[in-house]
Protein: Anti-anti-sigma factor
Amino acid sequence: MSRARNTGRIDPARPPATELVEVALTEPLDLAAVAELGAVLDRVLALRPTRLVIDLTSCANIDAAGIALLLDAHRRMFSLGGRLVLRSPSSRLSRLLQVAQVDQVLYVVPARAVASTGHDGTAVGSRAETRG
Structure:
């Protein structure tokens, strides 16, 4: 008898449910925010977006727990065949990402490089609610 093994990978043959989802962080991405943002990202990734944009314009700080969450979201998007984009980090956040060397793994762009389309499924705020 053979058993199917759940590898945790998503079937890449299944098309994405949505093209773009944006999440705008309005608070520091620290240990206190990771659980809530993690839950938001779980809901977002269930949509199987082709691209997930996390807007860091209003995010004042990020700690190791926040970086770990972003790396996990990147890994999960990669497994879906999608891309995680970090948009508009401040110069301070950009420097933190460089020091942690995650800028070599994560795709980081200034605001003008990623067009905002406002598709359904957009999530706003680190205490995000989805808009439809």
Q: What stands out?
A: The first helix runs from residue 31 to 45. The chain has one domain: 18-130. Residues 18-130 form a domain with the Transcription Regulator spoIIAA fold (CATH 3.30.750.24). Helices lie at 31-45, 64-79, 91-99.
